[in-house]
Amino acid sequence: MKFLFQRIAFYIFTAWAALTINFFIPRLIPGDPVTSLMAKYQGQMSTEAIQSLYVLFGLDKHQSVWSQYVAYWGQIFHGDLGLSFTFFPTPVSEVLKQSLPWTIALVGITTFASFMIGTSLGVIAGWRRGSIMDGLLPVTTFLSSIPYFWLGLLAITLLAGPGSFFPSSGGYEPGLVPSWTGSFIGSAIQHSLLPALTILISSVSGWILTMRNMMVTVASEDYITVAHAKGLSERRVMVSYAARNALLPNVSGFALSLGFIVGGTLLVEIVFSYPGIGYNLFQAVGAKDYPLMQGVFLVITLSVLLANLLADVAYLLLDPRTRKEG
């Protein structure tokens, strides 16, 4: 328990540091959202309206940076992330509420699928060294070295286009209203196929390679030899003895990858104009939308910290050595 409390205290401090950086980084970017809004309306705004916008976005020039920082923390504790400039006057929390499910559904499902497929194939490749499965490793490694967005561009060029089954952009067919109807769900699945395929191809080989190398290491351990000597079946030795002990690094890696579900595929969402949180961040940076940028960074930061905490808990449960004092 002492180890767990130490880790929680560390993550609380890390969250404070990350949120502090989250406050200052957007303010270091040249310009501000009000200036962008003035340019958008070609200067057709009164002085009073401009000053009101500065106050509304928490950029009152009469306030010190410290006062803005204190107000920022007060808003966070009250769950108020401010108003989005890009989607004005929609609150940031509402924008995130609409876009977050798209990212979680797309990246969450593909992350879990790539973990299960890659781990299973890695077990077979490591246990049966020299087989056809083991010989496919260079191909998967080559595919994983290609960036997400480049695979996305290739997929759009080769598979999308007029008359193609695969749409090249968007999250659903224009004209449909998001709802739990068969037509909308079918359209959403159809639009997610190419982005999901891009992420899956790029990420699955990492799990294969990690699991394969761990299986090779574990296969030479004494308890594997003893299991064979006891006359246990090949399948039982592979699954219950070798794979079970080789799985620990992949489990912790999977817990960490959960934290990057939110912001790990920014470029993929930009390439496919997918209505996820990464695409919102891209729009916010272009419009210098401080509240939306801070909201996105807040969600990404908290998800990564939570995933790291889950990884530590997984280590505590799976490896008894971490529960012992030095």
Q: What is the mean pLDDT?
A: 78
> In CATH terms, what is the fold-level topology of the largest domain?
MetI-like fold
When the domains are counted, the total is 2
Question: How far apart lie the N and C ends?
Answer: 14 Å
Shape: globular
- Overall CATH class of the largest domain: Mainly Alpha
Contiguous helical run count: 15
- Which bin fits the share of residues in helices? over 70%
Number of DSSP strands? 0
Largest sheet descriptor:
none
Low-confidence residue ranges: none
Order of helices and strands: HHHHHHHHHHHHHHH
CATH homolog superfamily of the largest domain:
MetI-like
Portion of residues in beta strands equals: under 5%
SSE topology:
Elements: H1 2-28, H2 33-40, H3 47-56, H4 65-77, H5 92-127, H6 132-135, H7 137-144, H8 148-159, H9 182-219, H10 222-229, H11 234-246, H12 248-259, H13 266-271, H14 277-287, H15 290-318
Domain ABC transmembrane type-1: 100-311
Organism: Kribbella kalugense
Subcellular location: Cell membrane; Membrane
Question: What would the keywords be for this entry?
Answer:
MetI-like fold, 326 residues, mainly alpha, 15 helices
General description of the model:
The protein folds into two domains: 2-77, no CATH class; 93-323, MetI-like fold. Helix content is 72%, strand content 0%. The protein has 15 helices and no strands. The chain has helices spanning 2-28, 33-40, 47-56, 65-77, 92-127, 132-135, 137-144, 148-159, 182-219, 222-229, 234-246, 248-259, 266-271, 277-287, 290-318. It is globular.
